[in-house]
Amino acid sequence: MRDERGASEHTLRAYSREVRGFAAFLTETMGKGEMLSSVEHTQIRVYMTKLMDRGLTKASVARALAAIRSWFKWAAKAGLMESNPALLVSTPKLPKHLPRVPSMEEVNRVLDSLGPAQTAGRASRKANDADAAEAEDLESSWPERERVIFELLYGCGIRNSELVGLDMDAIHWSNDAIRVFGKGKKERLVPLGDAAAEAVRAYLPLRQAKLEAAGLGKLVQAGPLLIRLRVGVGAKGLARLTTRSVGRIVKSIALSRGLAADVHPHTLRHAFGTHMLEEGADLRAIQEMLGHERLSTTQRYTQLTVGQVQRVYDETHPRAK
């Protein structure tokens, strides 16, 4: 998974945890001397039931089954067994939850409000409590960087991990696009809108000044686009803003602007797809920009209201009028 599929460390940890849990179950129920090839689909079903009895959600059980399927698929490919018994086990039917997405007006209100005057007060309040906070808790006191975060998450529809992974050379100014590495290290170009480009241009001189003040002027044109407030160089280069910090920044600003408490970086990605669909964008174009392998995934990230469906019908069906 690491070498061929380019899976993230988070995915590797999750799959490892699920497979080790199932292996422990097999050892407990079958004994240490049994071969992997002797495992049957009935034992996998028993394990799924055991997970449900422990109070795990259907989504968690489905994730465990996906890891087990992947494990057996590898084992069959490696010649350790003839077939994959997990293919005979059905995935638990998951409830379809439409993501709660703020309206275009709400998102625009937040984006229009981002600026030095609006965030300075919040930053100073956090600074007063610095003795009880970690360094990352001060990450939300750089207004220009905050605006870049919101503009790229909503304006480009990229994932949180893709955002923090952006390097300076990811911006293709001549093509008005950014190069993004998504899941499985798959590369794609995403359009960079005027508002997002303006936000990046306003942030870059401040990024440069911060690096030069820290004696890191040679690194101005290299490394991560989004850097921490406390500039430093580690084993992997310049200190990169973390996904956790981005999540904290987005939630803090969203709450202060009257948005729902459950707003997080992925909410802005949902909003990107939903709002583009509302404005008439082609679903496959949205799929390409979001970096989804399957169109069904894109459909899950977007939602149409009854009014929007009615409008499309009225405008396109020959018998509607």
Taken in chain order, the helices and strands follow as HHHHHHHEEEHEEHHHHH
Alpha-carbon distance between the two ends: 54 Å
Biggest sheet details: 3 strands, antiparallel
Instruction: Report the strand count.
Output: 5
- Mean pLDDT across every amino acid position: 84
Structural class: mainly alpha
The dominant shape is: globular
* Strand-residue proportion: under 5%
Q: What portion of residues is helical?
A: 40-55%
What's the helix and strand layout?
Blueprint lengths: L8 H22 L10 H13 L4 H20 L26 H10 L2 H13 L14 H14 L3 H5 L6 E2 L4 E5 L5 E5 L2 H20 L19 E2 L2 E2 L4 H14 L8 H14 L4 H8 L4 H7 L4 H11 L5
Antiparallel strand pairs: 1-2, 2-3, 4-5
Helix pairs in contact: 1-3, 2-3, 6-8, 6-10, 10-11, 11-12
Provide a descriptive summary of the structure in words.
The chain is mainly alpha-helical and 321 residues long. Helices cover 53% and strands 5% of the residues. The strands form two sheets. The chain has a three-stranded antiparallel β-sheet. A two-stranded antiparallel ribbon has the order 4-5. Helix 6 (143-156) runs antiparallel to helix 8. Residues 116-140 have low confidence and may be disordered.
Key phrases:
5 strands, 321 residues, mainly alpha, globular, three-stranded antiparallel beta sheet, two-stranded antiparallel sheet, 53% helix
